[in-house]
UniProtKB/TrEMBL annotation:
<dbReference type="InterPro" id="IPR027417">
    <property type="entry name" value="P-loop_NTPase"/>
</dbReference>
<protein>
    <submittedName>
        <fullName>P-loop NTPase</fullName>
    </submittedName>
</protein>
<feature type="domain" description="CobQ/CobB/MinD/ParA nucleotide binding">
    <location>
        <begin position="6"/>
        <end position="212"/>
    </location>
</feature>
<keyword id="KW-0067">ATP-binding</keyword>
<keyword id="KW-0547">Nucleotide-binding</keyword>
<dbReference type="Pfam" id="PF01656">
    <property type="entry name" value="CbiA"/>
</dbReference>
<dbReference type="InterPro" id="IPR050625">
    <property type="entry name" value="ParA/MinD_ATPase"/>
</dbReference>
<dbReference type="InterPro" id="IPR002586">
    <property type="entry name" value="CobQ/CobB/MinD/ParA_Nub-bd_dom"/>
</dbReference>
<dbReference type="InterPro" id="IPR025501">
    <property type="entry name" value="MinD_FleN"/>
</dbReference>
<dbReference type="InterPro" id="IPR010224">
    <property type="entry name" value="MinD_archaea"/>
</dbReference>
Length: 264
């Protein structure tokens, strides 16, 4: 049975696109037939961070009724399928967000999991993705304005008949180990699915048009994404052994000198 998740937030820039790209890639890596769709039709950038640009057919054409969704599906990392959105203002103006539900119906037989990257805010194109998902996943930053906006999005989701599955807390300072999950769950009134640390490798990976889980798999945020993806996929997560620090020139020289002294 397919599961449709909408990745949402109250205010913009909390990390929805980053979460969609990385969670989608890891779910595919864990063997789930996964498709990620850029439902942020006005400010699309899922395609941008995955190196999928200048495409002949995107969600814009599909929402305008000019193409079928099958023709807008492209290959992403680890076998995840991607339906990106175009960048033009004209494409946005011609899009009809009401068609999104029919598009999802066309995809349900082919996938185990569909992830929708929702726009920020409560405009019409923002509300539809909240209503058509089995579960909304809120991406929240650990700061008061983001928490308050997420609460508003939770209330809005429930008001329009949707269901909030849980929250991912993104951009937590340090390793995230010190973070108080229970307190955040109390504030938001939903389960905290996972915590992603602030990680400069996320920007570096985006600049090279790859998700961090592909470009820097041992980085702190990648390990968090793997844990969260296993949770969403319903499989047990086993922490991988990290390679030790590489031996530097000084270490090698010291070892050679000690050996030479011992043998002398
Ligand atoms: N854990 C993190 N550590 C460091 N930088 C991050 C992290 N998560 C996201 N970012 C950076 O924050 C910026 C916003 O992220 P992203 O585009 O995923 O947010 P968004 O919620 O999709 O934004 P919008 O609402 O504008 O669509 C990007 O530059 C991204 O690289």
């Amino acid at each position: 049975m397919v599961k449709v998740y909408t990745i949402a937030s109250g205010k913009g820039g909390t990390g929805k696109t980053t979460v969609t790209a990385n969670l989608g890639s890891m779910l595919a890596q864990y063997g789930k037939r996964t498709c990620i769709l850029d439902a942020d039709v006005g400010m699309a950038n899922l395609g941008l961070i995955l190196g999928l640009e200048n495409l002949p057919v995107t969600l814009h054409e599909v929402l305008a009724g000019k193409a079928r969704v099958r023709d807008a599906i492209y290959d992403g990392p680890f076998g995840v399928k991607v339906v990106p959105c175009g960048l033009s203002l004209q494409g946005f103006q011609q899009s009809n967000p009401d068609r999104l539900k029919d598009i999802m119906t066309d995809l349900v037989s082919e996938f185990d999991i569909l992830l929708l990257d929702a726009p920020a805010g409560i405009s019409r194109d923002g509300v539809i993705p909240l209503t058509i998902a089995d579960g909304v996943i809120l991406v929240v930053n650990p700061e008061i304005s983001s928490i308050v906006d997420s609460l508003k999005t939770k209330i809005l989701t429930e008001t329009v008949g949707g269901h909030v599955e849980g929250a991912i807390i993104n951009r937590v300072a340090g390793s995230g180990d010190e973070f108080n999950n229970a307190q955040m769950e109390k504030l938001l009134g939903v389960r905290v699915i996972g915590i992603i640390p602030e990680d400069p490798n996320i920007r570096r990976a985006s600049a090279s048009r790859q998700p961090i889980v592909v470009k820097y798999p041992a980085s702190g945020a990648s390990r968090a994404f793997k844990r969260i993806s296993a949770d969403v996929a319903g499989i047990e997560y086993v922490e991988e052994e990290l390679p030790g620090p590489r031996e530097g020139f000084i270490d090698r020289l010291a070892r050679t000198l000690f050996r030479a002294k011992r043998e002398a």
